[in-house]
Q: What sequence folds into this?
């Protein structure tokens, strides 16, 4: 793996608290010595926040698609009528 | 089917799961919201967010469900309903719930997300499979067409690096643009 990818992996391990004590200590030391690494950690964390946001958006779209099937397809008419009758 | 096996967590299996949960758990949530004076649309929104939260619990490693899944989902829905009143707004979307980073979504954030969705969708889908759906790497390799676990793992880090650089570069650009 490229050196920069190893760095990405190390940051990932750091963010998820993986690895043995020795690796963790070395990484902590590198963080103190290398301000650029610290900034990479924060950008990588922000990236994972975006991935989380993206994941939620996709799952919501999948759920909405199930909703549309249930409330539009004739096969689910019984279920639909039961729910809608509550709100009459 | 009350859960989803990590190795079976594909869009088709998720559709079955959500269909099952909708039929089993939505009537109780709809009755509850109706009793509280809410509309069909409010019941739908609350229920869908409750399903998202339930899904995230299912994919979490340490989740063990001790009660019936419908009662559990109704519990989340009641909580979301109560919360929306406490905040004195009828309904708060999920983006503002349990997700501090996006409480006040800046225009730069939505622009960037839009950019990532269009320009880097393949990487975003792969990262989602790893970090959001938490699929085993063997399943990800199969779904995304990699012959070995190693090559899927390398690709994951390549994507993470690529998206990270985009996030960094675009965040700075958009902030300049908006300020």
A:
């Amino acid at each position: 793996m490229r050196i920069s990818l190893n760095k990405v992996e190390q940051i990932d391990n750091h963010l998820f608290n993986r690895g043995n004590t020795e690796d963790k200590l070395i990484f902590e030391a590198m963080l103190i010595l290398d301000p650029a690494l610290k900034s990479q950690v924060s950008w990588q964390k922000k990236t994972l926040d975006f991935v989380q946001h993206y994941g939620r958006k996709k799952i919501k779209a999948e759920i909405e698609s199930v909703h549309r099937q249930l409330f539009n397809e004739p096969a689910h008419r019984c279920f639909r009528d039961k729910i809608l009758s509550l709100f009459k | 089917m009350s859960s989803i096996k990590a190795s079976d967590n594909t869009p088709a299996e998720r559709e079955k799961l959500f269909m099952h949960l909708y039929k089993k758990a939505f009537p109780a949530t709809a009755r509850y919201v109706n009793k509280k004076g809410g509309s069909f649309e409010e019941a739908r929104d609350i229920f869908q967010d409750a399903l998202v939260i339930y899904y995230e619990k299912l994919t979490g490693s340490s989740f063990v469900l001790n009660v019936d899944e419908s009662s559990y989902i109704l519990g989340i829905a009641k909580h979301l309903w109560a919360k929306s009143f406490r905040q004195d707004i009828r309904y708060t979307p999920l983006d503002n719930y349990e997700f501090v980073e996006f409480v006040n979504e800046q225009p730069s954030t939505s622009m960037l997300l839009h950019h990532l969705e269009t320009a880097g969708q393949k990487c975003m889908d792969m990262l989602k499979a790893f970090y959001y759906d938490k699929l085993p790497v063997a399943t990800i390799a199969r779904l995304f067409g990699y012959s070995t676990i190693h090559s899927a793992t390398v690709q994951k880090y390549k994507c993470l690096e690529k998206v990270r650089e985009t996030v960094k570069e675009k965040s700075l650009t958009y902030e300049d643009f908006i300020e």
Summary: Chain A has one domain: 3-86. Chain A has a mean pLDDT of 94. Residues 35-72 of chain A form the longest helix (38 residues).
